[in-house]
Design goal:
The protein is α+β, with helices and mostly antiparallel strands. It is built from 10 helices and 13 strands. 27% of the residues lie in helices and 18% in strands. It has a 7-stranded antiparallel beta sheet. A 3-stranded antiparallel beta sheet has the order 5-12-13. It has a 3-stranded antiparallel beta sheet with strand order 8-7-10, with no helix packed on it. The relative contact order is 0.21. The chain binds 2-oxoglutaric acid.
């Protein structure tokens, strides 16, 4: 019950001004009477003009970025198709030796207790504990490329490492990490070893990012002025399963080689396949980037995102 009280989140957020200031300028531009710690959800933006947030800010095209220009033709073609299919694949993006060093660093942080498994299989925010990891994912070349894909300003928000498959049911990240206007998020997924069909590979539905964004109102999870919605996450997953079953989108799995990168759109439906052979690991790392030129928040809990 306490977890649903908006006042509890607001009190916590009251003491995190620096990490929440990013939304304030956007609230002003949109004419929203909110402070940095106020609850926020999609219903706040009804009738608001998203163009107000991007006034006078021409974004660079992805084809002009240094990273894109350095890619082999096949990878460029994958990036070119991003808008159409909702993802792109950059094979061998990271050298095997760099992947090994990431694995060593994660192992060390698990052994010394810096990282502990949460939500079954997730090692959250390793980037907060390792300069090397953070630098790898915040370098200028990658940031420029991701900013161009977002048509905004990409900022690394979160990392999650896995040693076992997530087995997470199909979802869109936009219920967890949401923006106004919608679509200001990218998922960047790195294989830290070869991942076969029995190791719980990533699954995804090409083109599904063009489906509507299914947020709190679509599964009756809006709550009221003092409480967030009462639905369970399983209710969200059930709704998504029904929505996707009513379409022709095809489910695919990403059988990755160590060092391969998969980038997905904010609304691409994806998840983790069952991890069938538990004797094998499934080492991977996922990074989520927000476009900080938009309002960045969590629709499901109606909280502003702590950057
Ligand atoms: O790696 C996986 O199995 C799924 C990860 C995922 O769904 C996510 O981070 O949003």
């Amino acid at each position: 019950m306490l977890r649903r009280l908006k006042i509890a989140y607001s009190l916590y957020n009251l003491f995190n001004r620096k990490r929440l200031d990013h939304n304030v300028a956007a609230y002003d531009k949109l004419g929203l009477e909110k402070t940095y710690f106020s609850p926020v959800s999609s219903k706040d933006f009804e009738g608001k003009d998203p163009a107000k947030l991007k006034e006078g800010k021409p974004a660079i095209r992805v084809t002009e970025t240094e990273l894109y220009r350095s890619l082999p033709a096949a990878d460029r073609a994958s990036v070119d198709a991003f808008e159409e299919v909702g993802y792109c694949v950059l094979p061998n993006f990271i050298d095997a030796e760099v992947a090994d060093r990431i694995n060593e660093e994660i192992d060390r942080m698990v052994k010394d207790g810096t990282l502990t498994y949460q939500y079954n299989s997730k090692l959250m925010f390793a980037i907060r504990h390792s300069d090397r990891l953070r630098d790898l994912w915040t370098n200028e070349r990658l940031t420029e490329f991701l900013s161009a894909l977002l048509q905004g300003r990409a900022r690394l928000f979160q990392s999650i490492n896995f040693t076992q498959g997530s087995q997470q049911k199909t979802h869109s990240d936009s219920i967890h990490m949401t923006t106004f206007p919608l679509g200001g998020l990218l998922g960047v997924w790195l294989a830290l070893e070869d991942i076969g069909p029995d190791q719980g590979p990533l699954h995804y539905y090409p083109g599904s990012h063009k489906m509507p964004y299914y947020l709190n109102p679509e599964y009756d999870n809006e709550g009221d002025w003092w409480r967030t919605g009462e639905k369970l996450y399983g209710d969200y997953e059930k709704m998504i399963a029904e929505k996707v079953a009513a379409t022709d989108y095809e489910r695919k799995t990403f059988l990755a080689k160590k060092g391969d990168l998969f980038i997905w759109h904010a609304n691409l439906l994806h998840g983790g396949e069952p991890h069938l052979n538990k004797e094998l690991t499934r080492k991977s790392m996922v990074l989520h980037y927000f476009d900080v030129e938009r309002v960045c928040y969590h629709e499901i809990t109606q909280r502003p995102a702590l950057m």
